[in-house]
Amino acid sequence: MLLHVVNRSPANSRVYEQALSAMGPDDVLLLIEDGVQGALPQLVRYYAKIEGRLFALREDLEARGLLGRCAESVQVVDVDGFVTLTEEAERTVSWY
Amino acid sequence: MRYAILLMGAPYSHQASHSALRFARALVARGHRLEAVFFYHDGVHNAARLAAPPQDEPHLVDAWADLSREHEVALQVCIAAALRRGLLDEREAARHGKDGISVAEPFELTGLGQLIDLGTRCDRLVTFGP
């Protein structure tokens, strides 16, 4: 299992497409920085293919006033959860 | 586990430095060993000795230095990326005939080979891009 990390909003960047096309069936994806916008109900459709394997970083949601506004299918993790994901994943791949 | 971080974002231009620093602190707090942070591309500006941000803002250069001293984390700066951006230590300043030193200790100028070494030696390498 690989961890993919995306820091761009799907509203402004198409790098999410590259991440999705590189993902294996067990891989998970974490949204950080402006990428957390992708966890909003209006934008989460871009990640429909990986429903249940999508995470968003709590601190970056909070900094943008978006905590509590995520789609229900998104799992919110804090920075300790980020570390745990890197422990569990064989490797981490960052997309930016 | 043994970790290394690759940081490629310039301080105060992108969130990458803040994200990497927060991740680094969480790593050591959980008992992991952070071997090194490798600064590459515009990330080399994190080593700017003369950085003087407003006092009510995080001082990223000092924060990396503190992390390094407290947890014995090597701060490795790509020498090729640093020289072309005007970041020189004493030795490189002398070699290039410059009269100032712009890389703060404990940052060290090093080669890309060190990044390859970290990638093979550490259990995890996490990249923070611009």
Please provide a brief summary of the model:
The complex is a heterodimer of chains A (96) and B (130). With 96 residues, chain A is an alpha/beta fold. Chain A contains 3 helices and 5 strands.
Describe the secondary-structure layout:
The complex is a heterodimer of chains A (96) and B (130).
Chain A (H helix, E strand, L loop, with lengths): L1 E5 L8 H8 L5 E4 L22 E4 H6 L11 E3 L1 H10 L2 E5 L1
Parallel strand pairs in A: 1-2, 1-5, 2-3, 3-4
Chain B lengths: L1 E6 L8 H14 L3 E7 L20 H12 L2 E5 H5 L6 H6 L11 E4 L1 H10 L2 E5 L2
Parallel strand pairs in B: 1-2, 1-5, 2-3, 3-4
Helix pairs in contact in B: 1-2
How would you describe this protein?
The complex is a heterodimer of chains A (96) and B (130). With 96 residues, chain A is an alpha/beta fold. Chain A has one domain: 3-Layer(aba) Sandwich (Hypothetical Protein Ychn, Chain: A), CATH 3.40.1260.10. Chain A has helices at 15-22, 58-63, 79-88; strands spanning 2-6, 28-31, 54-57, 75-77, 91-95. Chain A has a 5-stranded parallel β-sheet with strand order 4-3-2-1-5. Chain A is globular. The model of chain A has no long low-confidence stretch (mean pLDDT 98). Chain B has 130 residues and is an alpha/beta fold. Chain B has one domain (2-109, 123-128): DsrEFH-like (Hypothetical Protein Ychn, Chain: A, 3-Layer(aba) Sandwich). In chain B, 36% of the residues lie in helices and 21% in strands. Chain B is built from 5 helices and 5 strands. Chain B has helices spanning 16-29, 60-71, 79-83, 90-95, 112-121; strands at residues 2-7, 33-39, 74-78, 107-110, 124-128. Chain B has a 5-stranded parallel β-sheet, with helices on both faces. In chain B, strand 1, helix 1 and strand 2 (33-39) form a beta-alpha-beta unit. The model of chain B has no long low-confidence stretch (mean pLDDT 97). The interface between A and B is medium-sized, with 19 and 18 residues.
